[in-house]
Specification:
By secondary structure, this protein is an alpha/beta fold. It has 6 helices and 5 strands, in the order βββαβαβαααα. Helix content is 52%, strand content 21%. Strands 3-2-1-4-5 form a 5-stranded mixed beta sheet, sandwiched between helices.
């Protein structure tokens, strides 16, 4: 079974938004943008960036790492707005917690995000060479996790029919 879904996986952290775009399980694009120090401008830029990703890659789904963001962080300010932006355009959003992602990438399960980044660097060495931006690695790990989980779910549904 081939999954042709176009997924944009986002990582929001420390005034930075990063994305990894997948077509099926193939990584097509990664990018990262620094956001303004001014919250209103940063939110405006983040929304414009999401619009750009949607238009340029014709994505049909998005992914975010779910967590309980600490109050006052960039993630707590931007993630709800971005989720709403996708939902308002009818694009489904998948959320995944870090623990299952760490478990999925190694046996025995990885314990830290740093180990996950090492795995992603081994899969796609070219990402690790871009601006030494680790958030691209996080977005790529999330995107691959979501796409593979969706592929497994689809094959189970097909086999049950």
């Amino acid at each position: 079974m081939t999954l042709r879904s176009k997924l944009a996986a986002f990582k929001i952290d420390r005034r930075r938004i990063s994305v990894a775009v997948f077509v099926g399980e193939r990584l097509e694009f990664t990018d990262s943008r620094q956001l303004s120090l001014i919250v209103s401008k940063a939110l405006e830029n983040a929304k414009a960036y999401v619009d750009w990703v949607i238009r340029n890659f014709e994505i049909d789904s998005a992914a975010f790492e779910s967590s309980i963001p600490r109050r006052g962080t960039w993630k707590s300010r931007f993630a709800p707005e971005m989720l709403k932006q996708f939902r308002d355009t009818g694009i489904p959003v998948f959320e995944a917690k870090l623990a299952p992602i760490l478990t999925a990438f190694a046996h025995p399960p990885l314990r830290r995000r740093l180990a996950l980044r090492d795995v992603i660097c081994a899969i796609w060495p070219v990402i690790s060479q871009k601006d030494s931006d680790v958030f691209r690695l996080d977005a790529a790990a999330l995107g691959l996790y979501v796409q593979i989980e969706r592929m497994f779910e689809a094959s189970l549904t097909t086999n049950d029919s």
